[in-house]
Amino acid sequence: MDQINLFTFDKLYLPCRMLEPLAWVGHIPFAIWLVENLRPEVVVELGTHKGNSFFSFCQSMKLNKINGKVYAIDLWEGDKHAGFYSNSIYEDVKKICPT
């Protein structure tokens, strides 16, 4: 089985956008690679928070010219693990990705 190298000389799988909290950031190169290689028609993210992973999925779809959709599913109010927050998180994500 071939090894997966996420940091090759022809590509570097880095996100265009990162915001705190950074808990998911270590998975972003794999998420970008995964979308590129699986070429899904639909990606559904459950729990988006500030969008680090969501926008990485979107970035990979765009860069790899994949004609598909990425959906962010969230209550946009937080929880006991991520902390509770106002509607401003949703509004920030909506400004970048209105539909």
Characterize the structure shown:
The chain is an alpha+beta fold. Helices cover 32% and strands 14% of the residues. Strands 1-2 form a two-stranded parallel ribbon. Strands 3-4 form a two-stranded antiparallel ribbon. The radius of gyration is 14 Å and the shape is globular.
Quick overview:
The chain is an alpha+beta fold. It has helices at residues 28-38, 52-63, 88-96; strands spanning 42-46, 69-73, 78-79, 83-84.
Describe the structure using short key phrases.
alpha+beta, two-stranded parallel ribbon, two-stranded antiparallel sheet, 4 strands, 14% strand
Strand order of the largest sheet: 1-2
Cα Rg: 14 Å
Succession of helices and strands: HEHEEEH
Largest sheet report? 2 strands, parallel
User: What is the mean predicted local confidence, pLDDT?
Assistant: 82
Euclidean distance between termini CA atoms:
40 Å
Please describe the topology of this protein:
Layout: H1 28-38, E1 42-46, H2 52-63, E2 69-73, E3 78-79, E4 83-84, H3 88-96
Parallel strand pairs: 1-2
Antiparallel strand pairs: 3-4
